[in-house]
Design brief:
- The protein is of the alpha/beta class.
- The protein folds into three domains: 101 residues, no CATH class; 174 residues, Rossmann fold (3-Layer(aba) Sandwich); 54 residues, Winged helix-like DNA-binding domain superfamily/Winged helix DNA-binding domain (Arc Repressor Mutant, subunit A).
- The protein has 15 helices and twelve strands.
- The strands form two sheets. It has a nine-stranded mixed beta sheet, sandwiched between helices. A three-stranded antiparallel beta sheet has the order 10-12-11, with helices on both faces.
- Strand 11 and strand 12 form a beta hairpin.
- Helix 1 packs antiparallel against helix 4.
- It starts with a helix and ends with a strand.
- The relative contact order is 0.11.
Length: 360
Amino acid sequence: MDAERCWLWLARVLGPAAENAADLLAAYGDAPTVLQARFTEDFSALLTPPQLERLHSLDPADGDRELAACRRLGVQLLYPSHPDYPVAFLAIPDLPVLLYATGEPGQLTGRLLVGMVGSRRPSPYGVEAAARLGGELAAGGAVLVSGLADGLDSQAHAAALNAGELTVGVLGCTIDKTYPASNRVLRGRIERQGAVFSEYGPGAQTFPASFLQRNRLIAALSDALVVVEARHKSGTMSTVRHAQRYGRPVYAVPGSIFSTLSEGTNALLAEGRARAICRGADLLEPLGLAAPAAAKPRRAPRPAGDAGRVLALLGPTPKGFEQLLQESALSAGALLAALTQLELAGRIDALAGRRYQRRG
C-alpha cells in the first residue's frame, strides 16, 4: 500500500494535535508498520479508547476520495519520512503525522524560520512595528512564519514578500480554504514565494479549537517567536505558551502602558518570559544572522487602475469601507482587491473596524 494512503489513515486514527503521536512513532517507526500490526498487537498502552476504536474500524481506502481531491487541487501530503516534511516537527510530542501543503515547502529546508504573531486588530503602532521588524528580519535572511490571519499576521507575510524573501502561512482551517477569504491574494503570493501548511485536509471538519491547535505548529516551526502586539488573553498568547513548551526563545515588542493591545507583550517582558526586540538585529545576531546594512529606500511605483483610484481617496484620516465603497463607485469585490493590493505594497494601513488610512 502506498505511503500517502497509510499516513492519511494514521492521521485519521490519531486525530489532529495528538499528544501521543511521537510515542507511537517511536515504538513503531511509521504508518505502514502500525497498519500492518493493528490486528495482531496490543496498542492499549499507546492509544486512547477513541483512537483504539478508529484503529480497528477505519479502512485506509476510506481516504481515497480525499487523496483524489488533494491531487486535483495540487495539495502535497507531507509525512515524517517525506523529504520536505519540516524536521522541526520531529522533535515535538504532538507532531502532525500528516501535513497538507501548497506552494514550495522544499525551499524551507535548512533555513532559519522566525514566527511573527500578534493582534488581528492591531493599532497603527503595531502595524508599523510589524512591517519594519518583519522587513529587517526578512532582509537579514530569516523566513517569517505566521498564521495568514487578519492584522499582524498579514503584515508579517507582506513584509517578507516585499523584501523578496520566503514566508510560511500556517492555517487553522482546511488546506482548500483561506480564512479570512480577503487574504486569498496574499496567499497566492505566499505560494509563489514560500509555502502554506494545514493539518486539515480538503473538506475536513474544523472547530474554533483548530486555530489554537494551529498555533503549536507556528511555535514548533519557528527557531524564535516574535510577538508584536497582544492582549493578556488572546490566541497569540497560546502560541507563546507552545513556544516556551518547545524551548523556543520568545521576543516581544515593547508597547505603550496605556494600550490594552500591549498588555500581553509588556507582561511577557516584565515577567522575564520574553526578550525585548526593537530592531531586527536584536534577534538576528543571537541567531547567527547578520543584520542588513541600511539601504536607501526605493520609490515605489505609483498604483494604477482601481488601486490608484482608492489611494487618491485616502489620507491621514481613516476612512471606513462603506465610505470608500460610496466614494470610489467600485464594487465591494473590486474595492477589497484594491485595498489588499495597497496594503501589501505598504501604501496604506488597515485599522480596526475595516478602516483604512494612507501611510506616510
